[in-house]
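Figure 3 (text version): structure tokens given as input.
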């Protein structure tokens, strides 16, 4: 089998994507696990342990995807709550004739 360079690159991209989705704030644990697995995969690759590198890169990729999903969920939920608050405020204004 060829070296797992594409797997390492995919894992790095997944971690970067999770970071871009504010996973540092909303999925701290999952992002940390992904970063750790990526670091271990890179070390395994440098030591010539390609099977370990492949396995760890796949784990890092999956954990980064989870961090991304959790972060997006948190952001979407926060946006939904904001919109609900805006709707409630508008509803209240309509009931009071626009007075605050």
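Below: residues designed for each position.
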């Amino acid at each position: 089998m060829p070296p797992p360079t594409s797997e390492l690159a995919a894992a790095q991209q997944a971690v970067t994507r999770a970071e871009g989705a504010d996973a540092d704030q909303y999925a701290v644990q999952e992002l940390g696990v992904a970063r750790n697995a990526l670091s271990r995969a890179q070390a395994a690759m440098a030591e010539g342990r390609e099977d370990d590198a492949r396995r760890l890169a796949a784990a890092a990729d999956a954990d980064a995807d989870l961090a991304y999903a959790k972060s997006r969920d948190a952001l979407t939920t926060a946006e939904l709550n904001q919109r609900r608050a805006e709707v409630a405020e508008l509803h209240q204004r309509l009931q009071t004739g626009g007075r605050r």
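The chain has a mean pLDDT of 95.
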